[in-house]
Amino acid sequence: MKPIKPVVAAFALLLLASAVMPAAAQDYPVECAQRDVQLVTQIEQIGEAQSVSGEIMFEAFMTVMRARRACAQGRVALGLALYDSIFRTSLVGQMRVR
Questions:
Q1: What is the pLDDT of residues 20-37, one digit of tens each?
Q2: pTM (predicted TM-score)
């Protein structure tokens, strides 16, 4: 059985970070928000299935955080590229682009 603590910790941090979004979240780019919801949903499904290690899930989570920061700073192209990189690197073979 794979250890679940890193996965639980990563999702707890993800939820905390989502709850602490700045007041400027109303100005958050729609493209970034759509990609974030899509990706986080797929990451949650993979986490529930425990099909990848906690370390890989943590790497994906950290990339999501960097993408969110870039989008919040108005660097939409960089943010979207970071979101897309998760499909190509951390979770390659575990996710499918919709």
A1: 555 544 689 999 999 999
A2: 0.67
Tokens of 62: 């950290």
Distance CA 90, CA 60 (A): 6
- Residue indicated by tokens 């989008």: 71
Query: How many Å separate Cα 96 from the centre of its chain?
Result: 14
Q: Model confidence over 62-90: pLDDT tens digits?
A: 999 999 999 999 999 999 999 999 877 76
**What sign results for the dihedral spanned by CA atoms 54, 12, 20, 36?**
positive
CA dihedral 14, 51, 3, 13 (to 10 degrees): 0
Q: Going along 1-98, which residue ranges are E strands?
A: none
